[in-house]
Amino acid sequence: MRSIIIANGVFTLPVKIKKNDFIIAANGGIANCLELGLIPNLAIGDFDSTQEEILEKLENLGTEILKFPVRKDETDLELAVNYAVKAGYEEIVLFAALGNRWDQTIANFLLPVRYPNNKIKILDGQQEIHYIHEGKSLHIQGQPGDTLSLIPLSNLVTGITTTGLEYPLLNGVLHLGKTRGVSNRMTGKTVIVKITGGILLCAVTHRKSLEN
Question: Does 111 share its domain with 185?
């Protein structure tokens, strides 16, 4: 089972939900859920811009409501991710995590770095973002010609070995702030990326939508 978290940013269709997904609306993500015709299992946040009657309606439909103060140390999305992690969901998918506010978008990009033991990814239409932590590997599904970029989130990412890419790496190193890993291409339907040290962001742009 996995947890789907729908945030308050801009979402791009398609948003594909599986039958047993546990859906969390992070604060203003309630509006995105309702637009998609989804009733979340949980709504979490300060709800500073959500009408009380909407919360009451969701509660009557079975949504659990967890309300926090407006003055707090975490964003509503962080509260949602914390909940999913503590509830034992190893796979967590974030939708609508990107938007017009760069500060929120950057914070959302970096948020999954805190959770090395969880498989967290951001989906936005035909783009997806994965995170690979020290000593771990990642299998990515796609099609030949899909674009894949490797972007360091630590000062160094070491021991990078890839298969299934036009420009492979064998025990390679990428440096923070360098763009060497940007705009590689898949040569088949599966790419494997392994690292021995650091934290690596893997951004994929699919030429057509895939099942999640």
Answer: no
- CA-based end-to-end distance of the chain: 13
H/E run at residue 148: strand 147-152
How far apart CA 66 and CA 170 sit, in angstroms, is 47
Query: Residue 103 belongs to what domain range?
Result: 2-125
- The pair phi, psi for residue 19, each rounded to 5°, is -55, -45
Q: How many domains does the chain have?
A: 2
Beta bridge partners of 66: 44
Q: Which residues pair with 65 in a beta bridge?
A: 43
> Which of 60, 92, 125 is the last residue in one of the domains?
125
In contact, 111 and 81? CB cutoff 8 Å: yes
In the sheet with 127-133, reading across from the earlier edge strand, the strands are 64-67, 42-45, 22-26, 2-6, 91-95, 119-124, 127-133, 199-205, 147-152, 184-185
The last residue of a domain, from among 64, 90, 125: 125
The per-residue pLDDT for 209 is: 64
80: left (phi over 0), alpha (psi -120 to 50) or beta: alpha
- The tokens for 8 are 């308050």
18 phi and psi angles, rounded to 5 deg: -90, 160
Q: What is the pLDDT of residues 93-137, one digit of tens each?
A: 999 999 888 999 999 999 999 999 999 999 999 999 999 999 999
> Under DSSP, is residue 209 helix (H, G, I), strand (E, B) or coil?
coil
Compute the average pLDDT of residues 71-94: 95
Residue 212 has pLDDT above 80, yes or no: no
Q: Is the pTM of the predicted complex or chain greater than 0.90? A: yes
